[in-house]
Write a structure and sequence with these properties.
Layout lengths: L1 E4 L1 H15 L3 E5 L15 H5 L4 E3 L4 H13 L3 E5 L10 H8 L2 H4 L9 E6 L14 H5 L5 E3 L4 H13 L4 E6 L8 E4 L11 E4 L4 E5 L2 H17 L3 E5 L2 E3 L3 H11 L2 E8 L4 H13 L8 E5 L10 H4 L3 H12 L2
Parallel strand pairs: 2-3, 2-4, 4-5, 5-7, 6-7, 10-11, 10-13, 13-14
Antiparallel strand pairs: 1-8, 6-12, 9-11
Helix pairs in contact: 1-7, 3-4, 8-12, 9-10
């Protein structure tokens, strides 16, 4: 049986079903119990599972992540919510210096099976530090997995897989599309494997790699270009940013001979640069044009009046498609 759910509803259902299945799963974060979280992702779970498994914490990200590490090392499966991605910085030392390194530090004797859930990205008219897209920080850290769903089906299946992973997972939830649309989600528990990209649109003229909220923007641009120019772009949802699905990236570029990366993070040292490097290393001789990047700009995410000018748009993507195919 399937139902039409939003991404946010799919996340709540994944948490609920895993908590019912496995008593080791518990949630912790600011305002997640009594208020159900800033976006209400944990709404109703306190009543079902009690205050020992849905825990309101002080406003202290290093304490939240540090506590989650201790819980994970002692047999629990903590799912910690950070209210917005840029709020994680006070806890970055705990995540990068301890959670990510524990398996290596102990020569494999201990893993840290925890999930850090956090909304991220612009487009919601949020104030400073509520709109950042700094996924490259975490993808640059060995020992962390980095996951970004773009639709409700993947949101549930990827989160279930993240909670079952033996190592720490940073689970980035694109705020802009939390409630933007609905899609069919199976009611039973299921899994979407980590580390596997998905071809969401077949094509042979150019490969577009995107994730999170930018996936839908890229899809719309690709559809418009086929209608206007007859060019068929292949669109790939990476879904997991670390580890990247290298085979999916390379095989698509070998098929189309052209590539574009779309992300809302800042351009310099963004994940797009790593993807281009991978393509140059393993598919350079297949390229018929330089790989194009359509990204955010190298400035702090701006406030409301010009926020839309910061984000990649359909028109910017369409221009990039034309420049690459006509190169």
């Amino acid at each position: 049986m399937t139902r039409a759910l939003t991404i946010l509803q799919a996340i709540t259902e994944a948490l609920d079903q895993k908590m019912a299945e496995d008593e080791r799963v518990l949630l912790l974060g600011e305002d997640i119990a009594t208020n159900g979280g800033v976006f209400r992702a944990t709404d109703g779970l306190l009543d079902k599972y009690g205050a020992k498994r849905v825990v309101d914490t002080p406003l202290a990200e290093s304490g939240i992540i540090g506590s989650a590490i201790g819980l994970a090392l002692n047999g629990m499966i903590p799912v910690a919510e950070i209210q917005f991605l840029a709020f994680i910085f006070p806890g970055l030392e705990q995540l990068v210096a301890h959670a990510a390194r524990m398996r290596s530090r102990t020569r494999g004797q201990f893993g840290v099976p925890l999930v850090i859930r956090t909304p991220y990205g612009a487009g919601i008219r949020g104030p400073e530090l509520h709109s950042e897209s700094v996924e490259a920080f975490f993808a640059h850290t060995p020992g962390l997995k980095v996951v970004v769903p773009s639709n409700p089906y993947d949101a549930k299946g990827l989160l279930v897989s993240a909670m079952e992973d033996p190592d720490p997972v940073v689970f980035l939830e694109p705020t802009r599309i939390y409630r933007a649309f609905r899609a069919d989600v199976p009611e039973p528990l299921y899994r979407v494997p980590l580390g596997q990209a998905q071809v969401v649109r077949e094509g042979e003229d150019l490969s577009i790699f995107a994730w999170g909220a930018m996936l839908r923007v890229a899809l719309k641009a690709a559809e418009q270009m086929e209608q206007e120019k007859g060019w068929r772009c292949e669109v790939i949802d990476l879904r997991t940013l670390y580890p990247l699905d290298r085979d999916a990236i390379v095989s698509s570029v070998q098929k189309t001979g052209r590539a574009m990366v779309v992300h809302e993070a800042h351009r310099t040292a963004g994940l797009g640069a790593e993807i281009i490097s991978l393509i140059n290393d393993e598919a350079l001789l297949y390229l018929r044009a330089p790989v194009k990047r359509i990204t955010g700009f190298d400035v702090p995410v701006p406030l409301f009046s010009v926020e839309d000018e910061y984000l990649p748009t359909e028109s910017r993507i369409k221009q990039g498609i034309a420049e690459t195919i006509l190169f």
